[in-house]
């Protein structure tokens, strides 16, 4: 499914999010605070849009994704960036060494993993002691009035727009279902703690449509 939408994926996301995807990417990059020499794993990186913004800091960035089509599109677009490499990888069985990265991040991909709690444990394994986790993911607006408006948009408007701008509208029916079935902010925070992360915190973006979760691997 993701292979089929790779070419137009970023454009479609910008349209469907009403441009908010760029703001969410900026917030995520600021939370990561990339710097020269830092080793960063950007998991579920898709075509590498988020990875590029991290690599511009001088950090050494690995853009990993389960979809070969996404990886191929990312290499085609951004293969010339020397401190950015693309790797096909399963989030529940990462092909990296223990403690390999200073920071690990995943944006809008954790809910697509068949075992997200196992993925959180794998991310912990490949993070150096004291290293950082940043997750940007769809969530549930806490205010009931806005939550109802958001559900109306996802159920009625988003499918119509997706059929007009996407090469595979059925993929965005899945998107809507995965957002609806995904747990809320508190539940995801609990999963992160259960995986062994500490200093777990989150803040809402766009009134809770998205939540930015942060944590650290214990130093001991």
User: The CATH topology is what?
Assistant: Rossmann fold
Tell me the series of helices and strands, N- to C-terminal.
Answer: HHHEHEHEEHEHHHEE
Strand order of the largest sheet: 3-2-1-4-5-7-6
Q: Helix segment count? A: 9
Shape verdict: globular
The structural domain count equals 1
Can you describe this structure?
- There is one protein chain.
- The protein has one domain: Rossmann fold (3-Layer(aba) Sandwich), CATH 3.40.50.150.
- Helices cover 45% and strands 23% of the residues.
- It is built from 9 helices and 7 strands, in the order αααβαβαββαβαααββ.
- A 7-stranded mixed β-sheet has the order 3-2-1-4-5-7-6, with helices on both faces.
- A hairpin with a 4-residue loop joins β6 and β7.
- The N and C termini lie far apart (41 Å).
Short précis:
With 220 residues, the chain is α/β, with parallel strands linked by helices. It has helices at 2-5, 9-16, 20-32, 49-55, 68-78, 116-125, 144-165, 169-181, 185-194; strands spanning 39-43, 60-65, 84-88, 101-107, 127-138, 198-205, 210-216. A hairpin with a 4-residue loop joins strand 6 (198-205) and strand 7 (210-216).
Please give the structural blueprint.
Layout: H1 2-5, H2 9-16, H3 20-32, E1 39-43, H4 49-55, E2 60-65, H5 68-78, E3 84-88, E4 101-107, H6 116-125, E5 127-138, H7 144-165, H8 169-181, H9 185-194, E6 198-205, E7 210-216
Parallel strand pairs: 1-2, 1-4, 2-3, 4-5
Antiparallel strand pairs: 5-7, 6-7
Helix pairs in contact: 2-7, 7-8
